[in-house]
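COMPLEX REQUEST
Ligand: S-adenosylmethionine
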Amino acid sequence: MSWLYPILHRKPASNLLVVELAALTSGDRVLDIGCGPGAAVRGAAPLVEEAVGADPSGRMLHLAHRRSRRIPNVRYVQAPAHHLPFEDDLFTAVWTIHSMHHWGDEEAGISEAHRVLGSGGRFLVVERIDPGKPWGVDAAGIHRITSMMRKAGFADVDWTKHRVGGADEAVIVGRG
Ligand SMILES: C[S@@+](CC[C@H](N)C(=O)[O-])C[C@H]1O[C@@H](n2cnc3c(N)ncnc32)[C@H](O)[C@@H]1O
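STATUS: Structure written out below.
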């Protein structure tokens, strides 16, 4: 990942989109898997009880901490998607933005998301629709993600396409 990423993407449109689509309320406890510098965590914090970011990169978390210093209900943990250090059913909303294509084991990460999400909670996966690019998904990639989510136990799995920040984003949603 380029060292420029957190500088160029301080408030990505994709992150703001997810905060909006998650329809957050004051009782929510949210988890952002692969949170990077934490823009979506900070976007969610004023709307929810607690906003947590998880990321395996110490460099990303250093930036996330630095940019979140004055926000009391935010915390970050260093962890990969396939090994989340949280108890079962802790969160009411979980999301991952432009991160799943980095996961070594997507099925294990999705299964962890399902474990830490309480029954009825929502899981949102955002990937850029950019066929042929290492960071992009095409129709087959979206189908693969929806299949893995159903297999992990998510219900009502569906996806929508959104044009934000000059890009097409696939938002895949399931219910825990
Ligand atoms: C393109 S950045 C996106 C960051 C943030 N979600 C955003 O939209 O700005 C991808 C992030 O995924 C993280 N990542 C890489 N491997 C991961 C894994 N196995 N589990 C969770 N996150 C991972 C990276 O450290 C990086 O912060």
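REMARKS: The chain has six helices and eight strands. Residues 1, 9, 12, 14-15, 33-36, 39, 55-57, 60, 80-81, 97-99, 102-104 surround S-adenosylmethionine (CB under 6 Å).
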